[in-house]
Request: fold
Amino acid sequence: MLWISACILLLAWVNPAAGGLDSFNLPGIVINNFVLPGGVVFLLYGLMHEQTWLRRLLETRLFMLLGKSSYAFYLTHMGIFSVFLHTYVTQNIALNFLLLNGLSILLYRFVEDPLHKLISARPNPQPSLPVAAAVALRSKDKAPAQAEAL
Reply:
């Protein structure tokens, strides 16, 4: 975690926010694409192989739920929901974050998970007629060639 924190501070130092997101420079690119992932690799290795307080925290039901709803959060955090919350509810970033996480959990529970179960429960579809015909024609073409080879 110290490695990752140091990389974030170093990125802030070599790539100040005044230049905006388009102001990436070579040191920032190297840190972001090569140095930072090294720290992430060590963090993930430690989480997989050692019983730490961080691993126990990430294995709780709350964090498992947040992980499952993370795709819904990804879809909503920069969309119409975020704009609505910022404009009509609150401009507090922390409160917006909590509300968007709550929304993503609701979307996961009542949309994503039921649809996943519905789609997973469907039997395997049979190939359409053009696909079945193409497979049948291909097998007919191979049969005479195999007979000639004998």
